[in-house]
């Protein structure tokens, strides 16, 4: 397992302070604020630690209230809202400097059989048919802005293989659609809860960018103020995050300084794993 993956798993292994109270830390990567996917995943881990093991998370809804301070631990307070016959509900508030920075509601369900259907995965090139490794970095970095170059050079636990690279290389206005193959750079093991937490972590990556395609901009553009506002996720089927997943994204609307983006995550064999929706702040920087 790579060091960056091991570090991610350590970050998601929260310290228990008391019943319903947990503490998480952030990596020392020089960022000015905590990555939103980290807070989502840590809050989900905190909620999961208070739920019977046989009940997996099937949905979460979260709100970002304040930027997280990466230099200070985050305390997660879990409220055990309900323990029902089939479903369990938890609410988590993330605290720093005596203030709430994030809240999450999550619902858990014991496994049961039911009706089955899904939308089919788009027919696009497979990850092995796309530029990757040094070829991908050289393609993106050759003419990319400095902020994009710094992003791609940074070691990370999640590997990307974008189907399209145009938005990194030009200011052309594009259709608000994106397809990216993603996977964890190491095996995180068979634990369903751990795989779900890592999936929640990576679900916040690249998503908000899609809402800017129609405007010829990206989240790396200094003219844009961008931040996640809320995040919702539905977990349909089990996942192995060490295997390739297709993250399809579209942005149906932007208005009022906000952009809405939707996403679907498919396994390599076309199984729909999860659905995502996020609204983010995308306003011209004054």
Structure write-up:
With 286 residues, this protein is an alpha+beta fold. It has two domains: 1-112, Hotdog Thioesterase (Thiol Ester Dehydrase, Chain A); 128-286, Hotdog Thioesterase (Thiol Ester Dehydrase, Chain A, Roll). 19% of the residues lie in helices and 38% in strands. The protein has six helices and twelve strands. Strands 1-2-4-5-6-3-9-12-11-10-8-7 form a twelve-stranded antiparallel sheet, with helices on one face. A hairpin with a 2-residue loop joins strand 1 and strand 2 (21-24). The longest helix is centred in the N-terminal third of the chain and has 13 residues, at 36-48. It is globular and about 55 Å long. The N and C termini lie far apart (44 Å). The mean pLDDT is 92.
């Amino acid at each position: 397992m790579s060091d960056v993956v091991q570090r991610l798993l350590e970050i998601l292994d929260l310290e228990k302070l008391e019943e319903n109270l947990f503490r998480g830390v952030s990596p020392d990567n020089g960022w000015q604020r905590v990555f939103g996917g980290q807070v989502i995943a840590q809050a989900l881990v905190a909620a999961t630690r208070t739920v019977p093991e046989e009940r997996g998370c099937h949905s979460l809804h979260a709100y970002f209230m304040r930027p997280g301070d990466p230099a200070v631990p985050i305390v997660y307070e879990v409220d055990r809202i309900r323990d029902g016959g089939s479903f369990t509900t938890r609410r988590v508030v993330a605290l720093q400097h005596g203030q709430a920075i994030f809240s999450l509601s999550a619902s858990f369900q014991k496994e049961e059989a039911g009706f089955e259907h899904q939308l089919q995965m788009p027919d696009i090139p497979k990850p092995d048919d796309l530029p990757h490794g040094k070829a991908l970095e050289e393609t993106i970095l050759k003419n990319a802005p400095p902020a994009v170059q710094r992003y791609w050079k940074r070691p990370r636990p999640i590997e990307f293989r974008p189907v399209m690279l145009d938005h990194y290389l030009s200011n052309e206005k594009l259709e608000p659609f994106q397809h990216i193959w993603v996977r964890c750079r190491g095996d995180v093991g068979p634990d369903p809860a751990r795989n779900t937490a890592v999936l929640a972590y990576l679900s916040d990556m690249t998503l908000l960018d899609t809402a800017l395609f129609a405007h010829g901009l990206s989240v790396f553009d200094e003219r844009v103020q961008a931040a996640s506002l809320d995040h919702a996720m539905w977990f349909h089927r089990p996942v192995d995050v060490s295997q390739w997943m297709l993250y399809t994204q579209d942005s149906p609307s932007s208005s009022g300084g906000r952009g809405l983006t939707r996403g679907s995550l498919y396994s390599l064999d076309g199984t729909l794993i999860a659905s995502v929706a996020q609204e983010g702040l995308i306003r011209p920087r004054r």
